[in-house]
Amino acid sequence: MDKPRLAVFKFTSCDGCQLSIPDMERGLVDIANTFDIAYFLGLKSRKSTGYYGISLVEGSISTPDEIKRIRAIRENTHYLVTIGACATAGGLQALRNLKDLGAFKKAVYPKPEHIDALKDSLPISHYVHVDFELWGCPISREGLLEVLASFLRERRPNIQAYSVCFECKRKGTPCVLVAQGIPCLGPITRTGCGAICPSYGRDCYGCFGPSEDPNIKSLSLRFETLGLSKDEIKLRLAGINSYAFGKYHGKE
Amino acid sequence: MNIAAPFEAVIKRIKKETRDTFTLTLRVKDRAIRKEYGFTPGQFNMLYVPGIGEAAISICSATWREDIRHTIRVAGDVTTAISNLKGGDVIGVRGPFGRGWPMEMLKGNDLMIMAGGLGIAPFRSLLRQILREKEEGARYFLLYGAKTPKDIIYRNEFPRYGEVFEVLLTVDKADPEEYWKGDMGVVTNLLKKINIIPEKTIAFICGPEIMMQSSIKELINMGLSEDSIYISMERHMNCGMGVCGHCMFGPKFICKDGPVFSYTDIIEFLGEREI
Amino acid sequence: MKHNFYMEPLTIRKEALGDIIKDLSNRGYRVIGPTVRGGTIGLDNITAIEDLPVGYGDRQVTGGYSLFKHERPYFFGFSNGPDSLKRFLNPPYQRLFAIKKRAKGFETMIYEYEGSPFAFIGIRACDLRALHILDMVFEKDPFYQAERKEIFIIAVNCIFPSNTCFCPSMNSGPEVKYGFDLLLTEFDEDFLMEVGSKKGLNAIEGVHHKEAAGADIEKKRGLIDSSSKSIKKTLDTEGLPTLLYREFENPWWADIANRDLSCGNCTMVCPTCFCNTSNDTSSLDGKTATRIRCWDSCFSVNFALVHGGNFRPSRRARYRQWMTHKLAYWINQFGVSGCVGCGRCITWCPAGIDITEELMAIRISGKRR
Ligand SMILES: Cc1cc2nc3c(=O)[nH]c(=O)nc-3n(C[C@H](O)[C@H](O)[C@H](O)COP(=O)(O)OP(=O)(O)OC[C@H]3O[C@@H](n4cnc5c(N)ncnc54)[C@H](O)[C@@H]3O)c2cc1C
Ligand code: SF4
Ligand code: SF4
Ligand code: SF4
């Protein structure tokens, strides 16, 4: 059987997610053995075009040109996976969605008229159908390997969407919110990182985006009793996944 | 044997039933396990495809056969993976699990079987059993509803069942070119066409939950008592042996207390929202 | 449950506990006991008495936990932390088996239990009841049973219960009455030790002890009584399980759902919650797969998902499942309540939801309806 063709594409992002692939060492060898890595500028400059079995897409859509590009990729891809917070939720740069882009442009660039940017930085799924969204900033290697393994076996990835708390409790990590009164986003954040931050005694800041059924209002009330102001709470949610949390925050 | 780990079975035959449903005949590889394996109609196995996962599937072969049969509808990952297997391939099996149909109730009673869609599968081994050991003087009814004529499973077996059962079929809808001459509408409609002696009739039902609920209602209207009605329930199944909690339905574990329940055992919970 | 004491009570010096720990490790036990971890008292490997949280106490409130230091170096001056026996007997990640593909079929390698049994130190009455409950839940589970079979238990009578405890309501504490090999009651200067089994007797062979004075036994009674009296939280079990079967549509469930985070912490810390999910992971080359069973919870949205849809899509239904299972279904399933009154779910709920108060609210609003 021919190896499935794998492509990795980058949009508005920092490269951190795609770099977790070469970073995998052993995992990379396995990937290279099972996939034909057809397009991956972060790894090799030879571009092989055509139809891809699986495309991993990093980065958000923030320019008109990127809209065209993602549509073309979708047309040439069987199974499209977004990797990371940018591609899945608009990323840190989606903070601009909350404010006036024009003002930013003027403040940052000497000639703002040369900047051809969309008003909002939006997730890939806003423009094209996405088969699976892998959350995280950056994504976890285990998560990515699971996505690839499940793609090969034609099953859904075993990737859960419940809270980080599940993972803390399984690992036996003491709860920083209950035991130390630290405003941890874990209870409303999607699991997948391995609950790293609380295991170092600090709070989760939501890298993996909202959990499957986040009750932001209730956690906010708890944060208020810890002494956070409403604005401080808003700021805590206005991070890497601001756009995704914002969707729920508006609703609740 | 560790009941959390599967044993191997070889696919001997694959028979297409309908466009999305097929029947597998399995031969357990290990001779000792094969000899030891026994079940009652209505029980199920967990079928396993390595690297994909497991699915709960009713056993539909005759109890005295050494080979195990399963009728499977393609639903999601596991069932699709099973449908991609070929004759000679190996599949994992755990089981049998659960409590099947209460065979002791057949003594001295008439039996009404009501099946909706794939709900006919857990009855097949019971049907076989009754063909073989029917009670003198007892009456047997088989009421079966499918979506369309094309979705009728075990179609060519019905003439045989007809020798013992009064068989009534119905479909939700049929294309004109299918020349369907039978009934159309829900299974419960078929009840109007038969005469039963409610005091000596027991009913076994399997199908979508709504169909089972309306059947129960109708049967009780006809005079059946609550404790003469049995239904086979379905919930998310993961371990099959009562330790994962997924299949809980009220206080019942579908996998070990069921899937077949006396209606009286679950009467408080059936029809409750989001139980 | 009958009292099971193997012989007359003894008195041992506090340091003698160290000898017992050493002796148990020498006999090949993995000794597990309370130890300070990240501002909490968890259960972990113990090699010497220095590993125990000597002198520590805990303050537990709804949704809050903190440690403090007693003036005296009590060995067991605290109440239950987030961990319970289930972490060890039904581990959060249990590998079930590995699969290796062969040309025709596959080879299954079951992860068999290997060797060293656990010895648990400082287990309380509520957790012994929980153990008894898990024994019933996992009666047919080969993995649990293998871990469970040979365990050794040093229990303690609970002298410093926390604000979230309500074991008297559940009839499960604070006094230990059964299910131990050795039982300690901590006095200021020494331990009163009771022996519950032949195994327990063997374990103290080399340990210096003397027969306890009658006054010590009185003292134990007194401590347990005052401990019991100091527990103010109650759960009214009157009318359970049927009470909750009438309240499936009580509007209060929706009120709880407004506060509930669906975070699952309560189920994870509960010593009797057993739910799990087994999943396959497969290697990229498809030649091997491993099936792992991992703690899950009825609070996870997909817990009751089937192909055709989800049986419990709302938080309302998921919280209701949790409370109704613990306090009602369980009684039908295993003949006892699934709640042992340990209070963990109350302490560790980030939203400060208290099962005893919510039951009360359901009871009251149910009456009004
Ligand atoms: C007692 C019992 C007997 C059954 N008998 C048969 C039978 O004879 N023939 C047949 O075709 N089907 C039968 N089913 C239904 C069958 O189990 C599901 O269709 C199958 O599990 C779907 O798995 P999947 O991976 O293909 O679907 P997916 O859609 O990929 O899986 C859905 C998700 O739900 C989980 N799940 C767990 N239990 C179920 C369930 N009951 N239904 C759907 N998803 C479930 C899966 O593990 C997965 O997480 C039976 C179910 C039960 C409970
Ligand atoms: S329900 Fe709460 S109080 Fe009861 S045993 Fe579980 S964690 Fe303890
Ligand atoms: S309360 Fe929920 S997690 Fe706990 S045992 Fe019951 S169903 Fe499982
Ligand atoms: S009751 Fe509390 S701990 Fe349990 S899921 Fe809800 S918020 Fe989390």
Q: What would you say this structure looks like, in words?
A:
The complex is a heterotrimer of chains A (252), B (275) and C (369). With 252 residues, chain A is α/β, with parallel strands linked by helices. Chain A folds into two domains: 5-152, NADH:ubiquinone oxidoreductase-like, 20kDa subunit (Rossmann fold), CATH 3.40.50.700; 164-249, no CATH class. In chain A, 38% of the residues lie in helices and 11% in strands. Chain A is built from twelve helices and five strands. Chain A has helices at 16-19, 26-34, 64-75, 84-89, 101-108, 141-153, 164-171, 176-180, 196-199, 216-225, 230-237, 242-251, and strands at residues 5-10, 36-40, 52-58, 77-83, 132-134. Chain A has a five-stranded parallel β-sheet with strand order 2-1-3-4-5, sandwiched between helices. Chain A starts with a strand and ends with a helix. The mean pLDDT of chain A is 91. Chain B has 275 residues and is α/β, with parallel strands linked by helices. Chain B has helices spanning 31-36, 77-83, 124-132, 158-162, 187-190, 209-221, 263-266, and strands at 7-18, 21-28, 44-49, 53-58, 68-73, 90-97, 110-116, 140-146, 165-171, 183-184, 201-206, 229-232, 248-249, 252-253, 260-262. In chain B, the strands form three sheets. Chain B has a seven-stranded mixed β-sheet. The longest helix of chain B has 13 residues, at 209-221. The mean pLDDT of chain B is 95. By secondary structure, chain C is an alpha+beta fold. Chain C has two domains: 10-230, no CATH class; 240-368, no CATH class. Helix content of chain C is 32%, strand content 24%. Chain C is built from 13 helices and 16 strands. The mean pLDDT of chain C is 94. At the A-C interface, helix 2, helix 6, helix 7, helix 8 and helix 10 of A face strand 3, strand 5, helix 10 and strand 13 of C. Bound molecules: flavin-adenine dinucleotide (FAD) and iron/sulfur cluster (SF4) (3 copies). One iron/sulfur cluster binds at residues 267, 273-275, 297-298, 321-322, 325-326 of chain C. One iron/sulfur cluster is lined by residues 267, 273-275, 297-298, 321-322, 325-326 of chain C.
